[in-house]
Design a protein that fits this description.
alpha/beta, two-stranded antiparallel ribbon, 2 domains, Rossmann fold, Serine Threonine Protein Phosphatase 5, Tetratricopeptide repeat, about 300 residues
């Protein structure tokens, strides 16, 4: 059974916070109704308690009341406009609001939280293999290829950077999470690391005249509903003949975009093809490739390699 969200924002009221803690204990013991009642008591004391509203939304879902869950998630967003819990994503998943991008502060908070244990939990716990999948795809597109300049989008702790370091004369990484970049910096594999939004970084690189022979995006599009805007921004910083290689999660028979139960976007093959075409990039390879497991089963995915015409 999944426990209440691990992100906790104090209400500032000791009694309300204690009721939240008791609710966690009740849920751990399987008493979902009792946990929900305790959260409602906490919210009577502090109506702007974002963590309690979010947790109540989760519990109401588990109790089968999605309408009440959506109300709670909306109240969580109102209480925390930065949406550090990701209430908007749950509203999208429930169909209560139209699909849109993930709140940047939510993504940053998520990865800042997991940064210290990220490599171990991803590689050992989820059999993560996106860097190796990308290496194999690039080898097929450009056997034995070496790249003068490589840009690692959403570089995280540097798992993809480590895999491509020997193929790059210069390796640059960018990630939204300061703590993930801090972990990557400790590996001493990048020539330059930046903290920032991917699209904003690409726009700045274009303005500065910086160009790349290879741009990587390993497991990045799980956090973006649309590939096309990034593909167009990447095309603007690729050298002639440069490559854009990335992985996505997918769903069989799906041509569009879907937000799954794990709050990760899956992109259909048609969506990937259309995004690269809109960017003026030539699709070199698009193959099935799972890069991680979930509950012990491989997650369906695609690996794409495109070339700048």
């Amino acid at each position: 059974m999944q426990l209440l969200s691990t992100l906790f924002l104090s209400s500032g009221d000791l009694i309300a916070d204690r009721r939240y803690a008791w609710a966690q204990d009740c849920e751990a013991k399987g008493d979902l109704a009792g946990a929900a009642e305790l959260l409602e008591q906490a919210l009577e004391l502090t109506p702007g308690y974002a963590s309690a509203w979010f947790a109540l939304g989760e519990l109401r879902e588990k109790l089968g009341d999605t309408t009440a869950a959506a109300v709670a998630y909306r109240r969580a967003r109102e209480a925390d406009p930065e949406d550090r819990h990701g209430a908007l994503l749950n509203l999208m998943r429930l169909g209560a609001v139209a699909p849109s991008g993930m709140p940047p502060v939510y993504v940053q908070t998520l990865f800042d939280h997991y940064a210290p244990e990220f490599d171990r939990s991803l590689v050992e716990g989820l059999s993560y293999s996106a860097p190796q999948v990308l290496l194999a795809a690039l080898e097929a597109a450009k056997p034995g290829g070496r790249f003068a300049s490589v840009l690692d989008l959403g570089c995280g702790t540097g798992l993809a950077g480590s895999a491509f370091r020997n193929r790059a004369d210069t390796l640059i990484g960018v990630d939204l999470s300061p703590r993930m970049v801090e972990q990557a910096r400790r590996k001493e594999i990048y020539d330059r690391l930046e903290v920032g939004d991917v699209l904003e970084f690409l726009a700045a690189e274009r303005q500065a005249g910086n160009r790349y022979a290879l741009v990587l995006a390993a497991d990045v599009f799980a956090y973006f509903p649309h590939i096309a805007p990034i593909a167009r921004a990447v095309a603007a910083v690729l050298t002639p003949g440069g490559f854009f290689a990335f992985t996505v999660e997918t769903r069989e028979g799906e041509s569009g975009v879907e937000l799954g139960e794990g709050l990760r976007f899956a992109h259909g093959e048609g969506h990937v093809r259309a995004a690269l075409e809109s960017a003026g990039l030539n699709l070199v390879g698009l193959d099935s490739a799972s890069t991680r497991t979930e509950k012990g089963f491989p997650v369906p995915g695609l690996v794409a390699v495109a070339e700048n015409k």
